[in-house]
Amino acid sequence: MKVGADIEAVCGRCGEVWHVIVAIAGGEIAKVECKQCGRLHRYRQIGGRRPAARTATRTRKVNAKARTAGPLVEADPSRPLKIYRSSDCYAIGDRIEHPRFGAGVVDRVAGPEKVQVFFPDGHRLLVHGRGTRRS
Phi and psi (nearest 5°) for 54? Predict the structure, then answer.
């Protein structure tokens, strides 16, 4: 293997496997660049294990279950479809249009700046109310 060669690796951001080697240290691949999203990250072999410090197995399992379940709240067609912006605030039942995930409905408010939204491909946790002043 040499720098600039194609290799299969796992991208944590987009899940793609096709990468380009950008750094080799001590005869082993150190960094790769994802061909899909352009992210530079450590080389993660397909089927290999992540280092223990970066493992969040329970969180991944919970998120996987949430993505496969249906919506917790039915969409209210009388509400207008809002374009998603992290600076806007959303309430349960709001319909939003996300540039990447498409149309969805807000299922729950997960925190002061987080909402869970159900999209056709499953649930996603999104930020909201960023930059708004709280009294």
Answer: -100, 0
**Per residue of the chain (135 residues), what is the pLDDT tens digit?**
788 899 988 888 887 788 899 998 888 888 999 888 888 988 888 776 544 444 445 555 555 555 556 667 777 778 889 999 989 989 888 899 999 999 989 988 887 889 999 988 888 999 998 876 555
pTM: 0.47
Say how many C-beta atoms besides its own lie within 10 A of residue 115's C-beta. 24
Buried b / exposed e across 40-62, counting CB within 10 Å, b at 16+? Answer: ebebbeeeeeeeeeeeeeeeeee
Determine the residue type at 88.
D
